[in-house]
Design brief:
By secondary structure, the protein is of the alpha+beta class. The chain contains 3 helices and 7 strands, in the order αββββααβββ.
Length: 151
């Protein structure tokens, strides 16, 4: 071993690491990083956000709703043409229709885009109340139950 390597250090214990352990360490490092960095708002020109369907419910006298949002970086995924062909084949659709191909590609693209951690989003409820959602976690989504104040 070359001078300065770990094996030349006294009391060195050889360590073997499995692939799944590396993923856990990387996950821990990114989690710690985002915990310290101040969350930033999404930029509509660069990011896509999906807000999943939700239903308001009453908790005593207070209206509440769970908001689940998924955050993505626009157009960062790979070419989805193969996925379009696979879906069209599975549904027995003709790929001769260029408009259909474009629509399918547009709908599949977000599934290929990169996730966007540590972002927030402001939403307006009933045109009266503004809520700040997020920040998104390291997996690119946020989920929270919030009070809704219908006046």
């Amino acid at each position: 071993m070359a001078a300065g390597s770990l094996r030349s250090l006294p009391n060195h214990v050889p360590v073997s690491v499995r692939d799944d352990e590396v993923v856990v360490v990387a996950h821990k490092l990114t989690s710690d990083f985002y915990r310290w960095e101040k969350p930033k708002p999404v930029d509509p020109a660069l990011h896509n956000v999906w807000i999943l369907d939700n239903t308001a419910f009453r908790d005593g006298e207070q209206w509440r709703s769970e908001f689940v949002a998924c955050y993505f970086i626009k157009n960062t995924g790979k070419d989805v043409s193969k996925a379009v062909a696979m879906v069209a084949d599975a549904l027995d659709l003709s790929l001769d229709d260029e408009e259909l191909q474009k629509r399918m590609a547009k709908r599949l693209q977000p599934f290929a885009d990169q996730i966007l951690p540590n972002r927030t989003l402001e939403v307006t409820v009933d045109g009266k109340e503004t809520l700040k959602l997020g920040p998104s976690n390291q997996s690119g989504y946020s989920s929270e139950v919030r009070d809704i104040n219908f006046q």
